């Protein structure tokens, strides 16, 4: 479990040197984000001042964290790299595959049965390749990372969008796709567009019912769900220093909900307290020695408009509790009367059926203690609980300590369900209904981060509102969405009018954290003898075979598989939902390949013509038929093809099914890179209007693929059913190394060869 203090000291030693160099090159004082970015350059010393929002830069992250759903394909791919161990400290966390139903003990037992083969695979592959393994029930990835691995000034990537949570401890922590994580595990650089910078100045202090959650709910209201795109949000000011470390984690966590690359805070006393409380005094001591590098230069915060691309100011003393939702996390309403009006106007149910406290966003000791102070008042004042209450502690360490201190016992006295230390309802792992699609309209309140339709319980009619843990507790107890605990009275069991007092709690456990078994398994020092467990007949896991290079000859006579019409996101290419189950089995998940894409001929989904037989069928079946006949296939698409997530399955599936090239008007960049990594051709029409030339029965002849070279267009002859031909020019962005990936079948094949030589 131990973090590597020597590695952290090395980061700090580099930082001291590189920050000075970067300041000279940039020619002005630096923000904290720039200090961390410039001190983690792959090439070490900065060679130039990078243009924010424009330059692509190679970085060298300090750590990687993977959750159980995304780790499967990432680690199956890593196994292809031929490396004996991961190049960068890495951990795997089993938290997404545990359904909340009957309570922690029963639910964990059930998950350990239903997902046994996935957990066994992850445990064995982690053991083999030097990866720390956190067992099911050990906790939610981001809470465990904050407690054990995050450190001020560090850079990490994680295969989960809420990796950004570690900004609460002063990191630049960024969510990535599995393919990016595999690169770094295999010892390659990680590329990122140098982010823009948004500064958020916090003044005043929060008090009473207002919580750190309300800060990010307010920021989400101001910036909306897209406002942080491509930017790091850096919080500063006296208000920032007044917040606890886990409170800062909450704020950074929900930076994902405004689309931010990540969010971070400068190192301060709250972080030092948290490091010491979580048994990391040596990191605090090391950080104290480089304190000036772990926050922005003084000039930056004195005149932020000069150094950030955008600046927002929030006075915490004026901030009041908010409820954001339903269906989007940026729709803010002040608790109380404002909600009465809005809910009535929009016909949102005012009765609240569930309150849920937990998720990686709000599951710290402080969160549970403050919410429990409200629960205790309900017991003391004889208030009957109106809604149901569910709790997911963030980690076994938090759960054990909260149980020891009587916090969980308070919730249990109110008949709350204590679920597993895992994601549970936050990711739809909640057995609330037997038939969610036909479940009734209702409202719930939770302290999670996302509240899109169906996210928690699969019911499209559930109106989910996001709030702080203490407001969630109060509203669940009152059973009304528009309950204002600051002004409203409740009638207790004796018929008396009573009111809640302000919540109280502890930033950190007064008696310290304690845990008997944190749920961590350290890997073998020498994993060479460890066998990775994958059953040959498994439906959910499949060892990967290296992709073979696409031969130039096979690019004569390639057939159109589908001409996608309009938007074609990674969800259209590789759907989520029930398919998540097959994320570790390439052949099985390939049965969802492009089934959401609209065919430009006939405008139906998952119905394309097999040119060999003339029959119409599903996209995966047709691709398999071409592959079986030894015929390569081609996908044609519109603008921004592959936008959405960074999921590598969207590139691996067509590659697996024999697609040789994806030719589009334009690509979403990450997907284009993923195609390159899998050894395929990702090409764009030189004349966008050539998209219109492509017909249903087209055959493609790549005329000059043997001369594939950087900055050189390719020429394709498109032969139509009537024998007529069009010659189409296509562009590409492959550099020499990427052409090497294509020529050798994949980027991993190149790494494997280099490793072997
Ligand atoms: Fe993702 Fe929710 Fe789990 Fe956090 S708790 S990692 S948001 S599923």
Automatic annotation (TrEMBL):
An example molecular function term from Gene Ontology annotations: aconitate hydratase activity
InterPro entries: Acnase/IPM_dHydase_lsu_aba_1/3, Acoase/IPM_deHydtase_lsu_aba, Aconitase/3IPM_dehydase_swvl, Aconitase/IPM_isomerase, Aconitase_4Fe-4S_BS, Aconitase_4Fe-4S_dom, Aconitase_dom2, Aconitase_mito-like
Aconitase A/isopropylmalate dehydratase small subunit swivel domain segment(s): 560-687
Species: Maribacter arcticus
Keyword match Aminoacyl-tRNA synthetase: no
GO cellular component annotations of the record: cytosol
Protein name per UniProt: Aconitate hydratase A
NCBIfam families linked: aconitase_mito, PRK07229.1
UniProt family annotation: Belongs to the aconitase/IPM isomerase family.
Single GO BP term: tricarboxylic acid cycle
Top EC group: lyase
Annotated EC: 4.2.1.3
SUPFAM superfamilies assigned: Aconitase iron-sulfur domain (SSF53732), LeuD/IlvD-like (SSF52016)
Keyword match DNA damage: no
Swiss-Prot/TrEMBL cofactor(s): [4Fe-4S] cluster
Metabolic or biological pathway, per its Swiss-Prot or TrEMBL entry: Carbohydrate metabolism; tricarboxylic acid cycle; isocitrate from oxaloacetate: step 2/2
Reaction(s) catalysed (UniProt annotation): citrate = D-threo-isocitrate
Stored Pfam families: Aconitase, Aconitase_C
Aconitase/3-isopropylmalate dehydratase large subunit alpha/beta/alpha domain sequence ranges: 34-479
Keywords carried by this UniProt record: Iron, Iron-sulfur, Lyase, Metal-binding, Transit peptide, Tricarboxylic acid cycle
């Amino acid at each position: 479990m131990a973090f590597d203090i020597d590695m952290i000291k090395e980061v700090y030693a580099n930082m001291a040197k590189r920050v000075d160099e970067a300041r000279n090159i940039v020619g002005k004082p630096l923000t904290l984000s720039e200090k961390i970015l410039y001190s983690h350059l792959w090439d070490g010393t900065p060679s130039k001042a990078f243009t924010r929002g424009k330059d692509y830069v190679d970085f060298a992250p300090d750590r990687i964290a993977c959750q159980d759903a995304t780790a499967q394909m990432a680690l199956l791919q890593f196994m292809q790299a031929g490396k004996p161990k991961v190049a960068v400290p890495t951990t795997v966390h089993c938290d997404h595959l545990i359904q909340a139903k009957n309570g922690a003990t029963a639910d964990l037992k059930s998950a350990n049965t239903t997902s046994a083969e996935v957990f066994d695979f992850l445990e064995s592959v982690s053991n083999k390749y030097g990866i720390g393994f956190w067992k099911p029930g050990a906790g939610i990835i981001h809470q465990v990372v904050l407690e054990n691995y995050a450190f001020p000034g560090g850079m990490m990537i994680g295969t989960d969008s809420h990796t950004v949570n570690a900004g609460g401890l002063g990191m630049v922590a960024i969510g990535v796709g599995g393919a990016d994580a595999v690169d770094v595990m295999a010892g390659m650089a990680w590329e990122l567009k140098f982010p823009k910078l948004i500064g958020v100045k916090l003044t005043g202090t929060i008090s009473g019912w207002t919580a750190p959650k309300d800060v990010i709910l307010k920021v989400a209201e101001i910036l909306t769900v897209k406002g942080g795109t491509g930017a790091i949000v850096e919080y500063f000011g006296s208000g920032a220093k007044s917040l606890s470390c886990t409170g800062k984690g909450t704020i950074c966590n929900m930076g994902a909900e405004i689309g931010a690359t990540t969010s971070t805070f400068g190192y301060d006393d709250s972080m030092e307290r948290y490091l010491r409380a979580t048994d990391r005094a040596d990191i605090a001591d090391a950080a104290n020695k480089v304190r000036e590098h772990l926050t922005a230069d003084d000039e930056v915060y004195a005149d932020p408009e000069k150094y950030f691309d955008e600046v927002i100011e929030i006075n915490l003393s004026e901030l009041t509790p908010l409820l954001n939702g339903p269906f989007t996390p940026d729709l803010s309403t002040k608790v109380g009367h404002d909600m009465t009006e809005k809910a009535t106007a929009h016909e949102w149910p005012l009765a609240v059926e569930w309150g849920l406290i937990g998720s990686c966003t709000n599951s710290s000791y402080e969160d549970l203690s403050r919410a429990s102070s409200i629960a205790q008042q309900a017991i003391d004042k004889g208030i009957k609980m109106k809604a149901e209450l569910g709790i997911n502690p963030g980690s076994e360490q938090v759960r054990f300590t909260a149980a020891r201190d009587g916090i969980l016992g308070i919730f249990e006295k109110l008949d709350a369900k204590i679920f597993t230390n895992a994601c549970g309802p936050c990711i739809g792992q909640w057995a609330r209904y037997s038939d969610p699609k036909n479940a009734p309209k209702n409202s719930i309140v939770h302290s999670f981060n996302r509240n899109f339709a169906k996210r928690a319980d699969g019911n499209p009619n559930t109106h989910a509102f996001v709030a702080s843990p203490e407001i969630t507790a109060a509203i669940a107890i009152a059973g009304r969405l528009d309950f204002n605990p600051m002004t409203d009275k409740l009638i207790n069991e004796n018929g008396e009018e009573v009111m809640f007092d302000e919540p109280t709690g502890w930033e950190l456990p007064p008696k310290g954290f304690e845990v008997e078994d944190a749920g961590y398994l350290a890997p073998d020092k020498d994993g060479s003898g460890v066998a990775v467990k994958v059953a040959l007949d498994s439906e959910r896991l499949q060892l990967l075979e290296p992709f073979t290079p696409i031969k130039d000859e096979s690019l004569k006579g390639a057939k159109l598989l589908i001409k996608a019409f309009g938007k074609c996101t990674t969800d259209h290419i590789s759907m989520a939902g029930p398919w998540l189950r097959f994320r570790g089995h390439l052949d099985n998940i390939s049965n969802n390949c492009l089934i959401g894409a609209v065919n430009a001929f006939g405008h139906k989904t998952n119905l394309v013509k097999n040119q060999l037989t003339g029959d119409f069928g599903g996209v995966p079946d047709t691709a398999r038929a071409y592959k079986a006949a030894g015929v390569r296939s081609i996908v044609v698409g519109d603008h921004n093809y592959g936008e959405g997530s960074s999921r590598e399955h969207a590139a691996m599936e067509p590659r697996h099914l024999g697609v040789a090239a994806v030719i589009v008007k334009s690509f979403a960049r990450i997907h284009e890179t993923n195609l390159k990594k899998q050894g395929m051709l990702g090409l764009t029409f030189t004349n966008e209007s050539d998209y219109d030339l492509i017909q249903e029965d087209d055959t493609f002849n790549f005329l000059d693929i043997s001369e594939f070279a950087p900055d050189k267009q390719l020429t394709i002859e498109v032969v139509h059913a009537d024998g007529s031909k069009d010659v189409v020019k296509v562009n590409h962005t492959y550099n020499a190394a990427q052409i090497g990936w294509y020529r050798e079948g994949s980027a991993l094949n190149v790494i494997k060869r280099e490793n072997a030589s």
